[in-house]
Amino acid sequence: MAMNGYEKAAIFLSSVGEDVAAQILKDLNPQDIGKISSYMARSRKKDTVKLESVMTEIMEKVKGGEIGVGGEDYVKKLLTKGLGGDDAEKIMEMVSKESPLESLKWVNPKTLSSFLTSEHPQTIALILCLLESEQAAEVMSALPEHIRGDVAMRVASTERIPDSALEEIEVVLKGQLDMGKGRTGKSFQGTKVIAEILNQCERSTEQSILEKIEGQNETLAESIRELMLVFDDLEKIDDRGIQLILKELSSEDLSLALKTASDAFKQKIFKNMSQRAVQILKEEMETRGPVKVSDVEAAQQNIVRVARKLDEEGKIVIAGRGGEELVV
Question: Cα(304)–Cα(237) distance, rounded to whole angstroms?
Fold first, then answer.
């Protein structure tokens, strides 16, 4: 299970000694002190794996400029205090080997978007391809609106970034962000990359970018939309939304689509239908016999189109899209 911030803080403070920990804690608010202290109290022994993970994260953030401290010597002393000399050396060496492209993940998205604004849209697109979708979405959202559509089109059209382009990108990064050296070419499915980015953007940003792409390439826009919402995502829709979707489906599409659906999703569908309708649907599924995978996928895509239409109309809400969760 991933550690939260309080647990990381507790592990860090437990490793740096009472004097340093006390100095840090005195500047925190009482609520944070209470939560951190709770984790510290529950820690019965030194977990080397977690400690190394926390110390590595700190070092990487320092290297990326997110934490301002007194240089590498200071960080090395801090790591040595928490981990010991050998482990500290190992982490310093590991982090120092990061290329500029790998180091991008530690750069604040707003900082990244600020310097990218002056770069060519193709350079911006290639860099976005190299980021995690959540970070890329933050960068995309912070870009000037007039270049977002162009950048998104270029991301969607990306299939491979050649070595020469990676080298040029690293020159840009080294000059702008004071980072290191390069590595190899990478392959991408651009439409999937931009779909994942847009899934993390706010709805207004997503719609604006898709409209610009659609104005230039309607087929590409449709391909991106199909990748943004997949059949498995429908399980996140609430019961009312499922009922609205069911009203617009044919029994043929539904019986085909459920052939490969999870038991949990089948039960969600069944509980939003009348007993008589469930009985008929189950009989249709049983009597249909073996079917082509392509037919199942086509039926599932038809259902996804219905869900996407209702989503765009604001009639249903799909939890987790745009980085938001539902509040009940």
Answer: 12
Report pTM: 0.42
| pLDDT at residue 184, as a whole number | 43
The topology under which CATH files domain 105-225 is Annexin V; domain 1 (1.10.220)
Token pair recorded at residue 40: 């510290």
Q: Which two tokens stand for residue 197?
A: 């980015």
Number of H helices and E strands in the chain, helices first, is: 20, 2
At the top level of CATH, which class does the domain 230-323 belong to?
mainly alpha
CA 295/CA 169 separation, integer angstroms = 43
Tell me the backbone φ, ψ of residue 261, rounded to 5 degrees: -75, 155
Residue 161 phi/psi, 5-degree rounding, is -105, 110
Query: Token pair of 189, please?
Result: 């499915």
For residue 284, the one-letter residue type is: E
Question: What is the enclosing helix (H) or strand (E) of 186?
Answer: strand 186-187
What pLDDT is stored for residue 277 in this prediction?
92
Q: What is the 3 state secondary structure string of 197-251?
A: HHHHCCHHHHHHHHHHHHHHCHHHHHHHHHHHCCHHHHHHECHHHHHHHHHCCCH
189 closest CA partner among 133, 233, 137, 149: 133
| Cα separation, 265 vs 64, whole angstroms | 43
Give the HSE-up count for residue 322: Cα atoms under 13 Å, Cβ half-sphere: 14
Q: Which residues of the chain have pLDDT under 70?
A: 1-2, 27, 30-31, 34, 38, 41-47, 59-107, 170-188, 203, 319-328
| Angle, CA of 246, 250 and 252, to the nearest 5° | 125
**Tokens representing residue 44 in the block:** 């019965």
- Asked if residue 187 lies in contact with residue 165, where contact means CB atoms within 8 angstroms, the answer is no
Residue 259 parent element (H or E): none
Cβ atoms within 10 Å of 84's Cβ, excluding its own: 12
* Rounded CA separation 86/78 (Å): 13
Closest CA to 316 of 272, 279, 286: 272
Could you tell me where in the chain the CATH 1.10.220.30 domains are found?
A: 105-225, 230-323
Q: 161 has which bridge partners?
A: 186
Distance of alpha carbon 2 from alpha carbon 20, whole angstroms = 26
Q: What is the mean pLDDT of the chain?
A: 76
